[in-house]
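OP here, attaching both records as promised.
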Amino acid sequence: MNCAIDDGSMLWWIMDDTYSSSSRGGFSGGIGAPGSGGGIPAGIGQSGTSISPSFTNYTADSDACLVFLNAFSGEGADRTELSNAAQDAMVTAVASDCAKTIVVVSTESGNAIADVLYGEVNPSARLIHTIAKDEKDYPVGVCYEADCAFDESVYIDYRHFDKFNITSRYPFGYGLSYTTFTYSDIKLNSIDSAALNNTCPTGVPTLGSKKDLFDTVLSIDVTLTNTGDRAGAEVAQLYVDYPAEAQQPKRQLRGFKKVGLGKGEEKRVSFELRRDVSFWDGGIKRF
């Protein structure tokens, strides 16, 4: 709200069929849709409310529209659906009239998204799951039974999408920034060549496997550069690929680091890989 008042923006916020508004000057509430002449002139920071049959009365007159969606869930009360027809209809209706429609799916996101939209914060978060184009693209649905069969094995989330070459709406690890980054000079370094030459760990037994399963054997270095015109943070993500005989997913996340960089700054980022990038061989019962 303070940001909007400072730059003279008009805000309308609608919950159900009730809207409130605030502006630096001019129309700031009253009965009637924007532009209908029903508003009451008001001073800086004043506001008003009105009852309207539909929020679509206001979208066409707006420079940008934010649609906030949420789903009730919690301990002992899982969400009952992955999509909601009423919410989908609302987003479609708003977007059809408002060229700049932003959909926010979160809890307690109002303050955070305002800082991002006004440029006070440069976003750097990444998706922790894949957002599909269609609910049927996911390997399993919502299960309401006491006993549920999950037979997707290790092919969950992005691994499933990779396996079946399904194009997602937004992939796992996706995110945006007001600046740009480049990766260069990637180097793979051998730390323990002897361990790499052994097909299986050979150390003393310990919890989970042989002790040397958890030794660092490789490191990967890359130069990360902020090529944009403002400071920001990038989340560097490391994925590994296994040979065909391993019968493993095409790629698996094995490391990530968030790196803050000023305008034009570059940093060397390093990842270490342990022998736990090995896979379990059911035939010999070993990693």
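Record two, same layout:
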Amino acid sequence: MKSKQCICLLLPFVLLLVFVACNKADNAKAEPENTSENANTFTTSSTGQCPNAPNYGDSIIYLQTQSNGADHKVQPLNNTGIQGTYLSWPEGLDINKNNGTINLAKSETGVRYKIGFVKKGTQDTCISQLILAGMTYMDSIYVLSQHDTLAMPIFNADPNAPSICDVSDDTDYPDSLNNGGNNKCAFDDDPSESANGKKLRVRSKSGVINLKKSLRDGLFGPNVKNGDSKRIKFSYRLNDGSKKAKQQITVEMIYYDKVSSIPASLQQEVRTKRQNMFEYRLVAEKPRPPFLVIAGLSY
């Protein structure tokens, strides 16, 4: 009989605890979802649709030469008079953290970025995506024994878009004065930073890099060995929304005698960057320079 009385006395107390716990859970403020690509750098978050997401008038912005010789800059069309902080990722975007002004001339073009705005007095980040139009190459491992010898340019961060340049072959390299290209595209046209002068065989009309020819012509010197690398910068001009403004890209060339000699960490980094590119995501925290890894054999 005592046992039944204890149960009866405890039951209302247990029900009260359950009610309080449920009520607390129902009224608790949910933690905002962290949408940053780099949570270690950006600890704020974005929740839902944000009216303060930076708007630059289009999802693709083209670098253009300014008539007065000044750097080409763009500002957000919204958030006028609203105080806050602007953020961007991955690396490569020259953005003023106070007003969101982007200096295109000092930014890496051909890259997909996310831009965030944190309104003063809040902890929410309103995020938008912006592509700086231009050209890049996809991080890749090229196996020469499998006839994988050409690095193809990618335009406006879209790996599936057709080239805006004409097709060309091995007769298409700049001359000693870096004359080359045509009305659509011109690659490696600046003698002061000639990639072909450094034995990187960039075709002047198409932007295609012949890796096999580069290696054969002495890109890494006469005694190439595993892990040898070179960073090479060259300029290009495109007859698109940029109106042939001079742009630049740096590529990192790396050599290994066979795929199995390539460090696992490098192979994984290349795979991740390629997957992100094909999924139209940010390529990496540091997308430039793209890694073009030359491997002689497939095993």
